[in-house]
Amino acid sequence: MGHTPLDRRRHRKSTSHHGKQLALEAFLPELRPMIKLNRVLLITFIAGASAVAAPKFTAPVRYDFTNDMSSLTLRANMITNPSKENATGSLKLQLWATSSPYAGGAIRGHLIATTQKIEGLGPGQYYENLKRTVPYDPPPSAGNYYLTFALMEYSSGAYRIVSHVNMSSQKQLAPRALFQMSGPWKWQTSIEGGTVELSVAKISHTRRGKTGTLKLSLWLTDEPYRGGRLVGYEIAQARKDPLAPGYQYNNVKNVAKFVPPPSGSYYPTLVLSESDGKKFQVVAYLTSTTPASF
Fold first, then answer.
1. Are 117 and 92 in contact (CB under 8 A)?
2. Residue 178, by phi and psi: left (phi above 0), alpha (psi -120 to 50) or beta?
């Protein structure tokens, strides 16, 4: 049977403040001759320390990216509220990417994942094996980042970090590609027919608006293409209509006119380009590491 988040909240057994007073008096008999008010204040301070609601991680935390890097799962093995009297505010789990290790206070970096509001904990309650899968928001520039797993509590009108774990190693992150081509892909020339058949499983994009006109083309190069300026021969191309936000092309098949290259051995690359109204620019590609002879 499944559990709601509330099912995972547990209660810890409370202890008596009176026991703490007896222990203090037995351990410090020399306090008895002192002014009684001082002894009462001291005991009240010690007993009241656990009354403040301060949720915290008390077991390991971890994160896992999905295979397509579109989302990640945040896991906290244990979150506790040690207070015997006060409840916490609403909670959130967050994962931050920063250029240097987080050392407390205000955090400066990029928030790459955050949960929705999680119900706060009552006195002595805790969450066990808390797990949330949330969208991944990559940083604006590529690099190696320090990651901080943060527990946020809502207090005084805002969410603030109340507990955190700095992950042990840096993570290489990069902005999400605006376009993606997913294989399998293939091409087939017809010398007699003067055509090239191009096919690819999927063309997708993440633009918030409509894309420009797209071009699917087959290029031949002397070395496997790895990005940057294309130097070689474009032997086939097919234009495709722009894609609206959230739309994609599936099971793409186009027949293009064949433009024969000079005789030789080349590495084929299926290239997707987008027009900005003036020229086409490469936005995705799939390269073969097996040469083909013409």
1. yes
2. alpha
Distance in angstroms (rounded) separating the CA atoms of residues 232 and 93 = 50
Task: Look at residues 61, 52, 60 and name the one whose alpha carbon lies nearest to residue 82.
Answer: 52
| 211: nearest Cα among 153, 266, 272, 294 | 272
Residues 175, 234 contacting (CB under 8 angstroms): no
136 token code pair = 């991944």
pLDDT digits (tens, 9 = 90+) for 165-207: 999 999 999 887 889 898 899 999 999 999 999 999 999 998 8
d(CA 254, CA 239) in angstroms, rounded, equals 9
Distance CA 171, CA 119 (A): 30
With beta carbons less than 8 A apart as the criterion, state whether 176 and 138 touch: yes
Q: Are 284 and 179 in contact (CB under 8 A)?
A: yes
Name the pTM for this structure: 0.57
